[in-house]
Amino acid sequence: MQHFVKICALSLALCGAAQAGQVTAYTALEEDEIAEYVAVAKKSLPGIDLKVLRLSTGDLGARILAEASNPQHDVIWGWAVTNMMDPRILTILEPYKAKGSEKLAAAYHAADDKWFAATGYMAAFCVNNERAKAKGLAVPKDWEDLLDPKFKGEIVMPNPVSSGTGYLQIVGLLQQMGDEKGWKFLKDLDANVAQYIKSGSRPCKAARAGEFTVGTSLAFAGVQSVKEGFPVTVVIPAKGAGYELEASALMQASKNKDDAKKFLDWTLSPEAADIYGKYKEIVTRAGYKPDADSIKAGLPEDVSKTLLPIDFAKSAKEREAILDRWQKEIGR
User: Fold this and answer.
1) What is the DSSP annotation of 138-184?
2) Could you tell me the maximum CA-CA distance found in the chain, to the nearest angstrom?
3) CB distance 188 to 173 below 8 Å
4) Domains of the chain
C-alpha cells in the first residue's frame, strides 16, 4: 500500500476529504506524470475526491485479478491494452463511451466501448552518433539493418519478459513478418545483441552514454535524450513501429459511476491532452500534433502513420507462449 500513500501525497488535495463522490483509480502510469495530471484534474473536477493507486503493469494486473470478486477501484487508468484484453479483465469492465472517444480512430478504442486509450508508446532506436562514426557504422533505418555483422556487440535491447517495451518490439516483428520468419529474425538478431536489459528506457540511456551504438527503446526516451543534448539520432523503423496503448476503463462494480465517468471523460479532454505530449509519443486525441522541439528531435508529425497494424487481442492471447519461447530459445 506504500504506492497508494505516495501517490496520494503527490495528488495534492485530491486525496483529502471531498464533498462529492470518491473515485479510486488504478494505474500503471509513472508517478511524475500522475502528479501533473491530477493537479490539472483537480481544477477541472473540483468536486471529485480522486484516489490513485500506482503499480507496475504486471503487478497491477495481479492485483486487479486478485480483487476480481470484489473490486476496490472505480476505474482503470492508463494500463497496457494488451493486459486489459485479458478475458478475465474484460468480464469485470462496463462499457462506457467516454466523451471524446467517438473522435478516436478505431484502433484506439474497443468496438464494445469497454476501453479506450488516450496515450501510448512506440518502439524506436536510439543511435549514438559519435560511437557509430567511430565504429564506421551507418545509422540503421530499420530492424533488418541491425543484422549486419558490424553491429555485433553494439546493440542493447529490453528484455520482453520484464519490459512491456521489449514485448511490444517482439510482437511488432512477429506480427509484421509472421511467426516463422519472425522467430528466425529474432534469433539472427540475437547474435548481435550485447545484452537484454529489464527496462524499456535503459537501452536508450546506455546508447546515449556511449556504452553501445544502438539501444532499441521507446521513441519518447530518444526524443528526451536529444532534447537534453545527447549525441543521439532517433530512428522510427522504416517499415513501421510496434506500439502499446495505455487504456482506461470503467469497472462494473464501481459504486460511484457518475463521477467515475466524469473522470474518464476528463482523460480525453483538451486540458489532459495538452499535458500528455510532455510524457508520451502517442497522443490519440484527434488533431493532436507534437511540439516543434519533439518533431525536431525525431518524432513524426503524425505518429499514427508510422505504427504497425498491431492485433492487440492476438498479442494478449499469445503473450505467455511468446515469452516462454523467447526465454527458452533466446533469453539470457
Assistant:
1) PPP-SGGGGGSGGGTT-EEEE-TTT-HHHHHHHHHHHHHH-HHHHHH
2) 65
3) no
4) 2-120+244-299 (3.40.190.10), 121-242+305-329 (3.40.190.10)
Residue 202 φ then ψ, to 5°: -60, -35
- Residue partners of 307: CB distance under 8 A and separation at least 6: 122, 240, 241, 243, 282
Q: Cell digits for 156?
A: 542493447
Whole-model pTM: value is 0.86
Chain-centre distance for alpha carbon 102: 22
Residue 2 has pLDDT above 90, yes or no: no
Average pLDDT, rounded, for the chain: 92
Other Cβ atoms closer than 10 A to 169: 29
Distance CA 70, CA 85 (A): 19
| Alpha helices (runs of H) in the chain, residue ranges in sequence order | 2-10, 31-44, 57-66, 81-84, 87-90, 129-135, 164-177, 179-190, 202-208, 219-227, 257-266, 270-276, 292-297, 312-329
Retrieve residue 106's grid coordinates.
478505431
- State the pLDDT at residue 20: 53
> Distance between CA atoms of 16 and 14, rounded to whole angstroms?
5
